[in-house]
Design brief:
- By secondary structure, the chain is an alpha+beta fold.
- It folds into two domains: 89 residues, no CATH class; 153 residues, Adenovirus Type 2 Hexon, domain 4.
- The protein contains five helices and 13 strands.
- The strands form three sheets. Strands 1, 2, 4, 10, 12 and 13 form a six-stranded antiparallel beta sheet that branches. Strands 3, 5, 6, 7 and 11 form a five-stranded antiparallel beta sheet that branches. It has a two-stranded antiparallel ribbon with strand order 8-9.
- Strand 12 and strand 13 form a beta hairpin.
- The longest helix has 13 residues.
- The model has no long low-confidence stretch (mean pLDDT 84).
Length: 251
């Protein structure tokens, strides 16, 4: 069973009775949906894969507590908070050792995730994974707000002799995801993080201001020999407001 990937579907909240909901599904190309075992692109021959006996699961909720909460909708309305996200990117030109990228202007999001990606992984090549995140020989990463470096930055890769150490990036990831010092949750090991899941996250908890001009500065071991994508995903908090007539407004 595949859950709906939307902020409202993740929240522990119910919609008020009488609300009309319309769901739209956009199906991917068949070549992106098939399991590849032939080490080559398989031509399916149809525009979509047939779905046999599909079933949509949903549930109705009843309880005295919910009846009390929903009764307030008729007098004061209801607000449903949820998280919304999207991915943006900028091209890092080849031939340069250092790059400065303007990320956003205005109110900071709840948190933001950064990663590097080679352009061909976003180019539709089915043989390449679009979720393999690597360092690409990056040696330093900084976040700046109004040209001031944020606390806990820059993050640096250290070299001693022929050995490289990535503990600043790894520890920052564990701190931001609340995994550092937590032995109850399963924690990704450092090697897997660096080689396959290299993500940088910032929650802005230690940031003195809640808005401003956010910038990224990053440098590499050597000038890029090909273009690279700096990608980021801001996660913002939004509110779906229902008035007592069940008219909806997004805040």
């Amino acid at each position: 069973m595949l859950p709906i990937n939307h902020g409202l579907a993740h929240a522990d909240q119910v919609l008020p009775p009488g609300v009309h909901v319309r769901l739209s599904y956009h199906r991917a190309s068949p070549k992106k949906a098939l399991v590849n075992v032939a080490n080559k692109i398989v031509d399916f021959g149809k525009t979509s894969i047939d779905i046999i006996d599909p079933t949509f699961h949903f549930c109705w909720a009843y309880s005295p507590q919910l009846d009390t909460e929903m009764a307030r909708v008729r007098s004061s309305g209801l607000e449903l908070p949820f998280e919304s996200s999207h991915i943006r990117h900028r091209v890092l030109d080849d031939g340069l050792l250092e790059h400065t990228v303007s990320i956003s202007q205005g109110k900071l999001p709840k948190y933001m995730v950064f990663f590097l990606m080679s352009p061909e992984r976003f180019g539709g090549d089915i043989m390449l994974s679009s979720t393999k995140f690597q360092m690409h020989d990056m040696k330093e990463f900084s976040l700046l707000l109004d040209n001031e470096i944020l606390p806990n930055y820059p993050l640096k890769k250290h070299r001693i002799g022929s050995n490289y150490f990535y503990h600043e990036f790894y520890r920052h990831w564990l701190n931001m995801t609340e995994r550092y010092g937590n032995s109850e949750d399963e924690i990704i090991d450092e090697e897997t993080y660096i080689d396959n899941n290299f993500l940088m996250m910032e929650t802005f908890d230690d940031t003195p201001n809640e808005e401003g001009h956010l910038t990224v500065k990053l440098s590499f071991d050597q000038a890029l020999d090909e273009k690279l994508l700096l990608c980021w995903m801001p996660v913002t908090e939004k509110v779906l407001h229902f008035d007592r007539n069940l008219s909806v407004q997004l805040k």
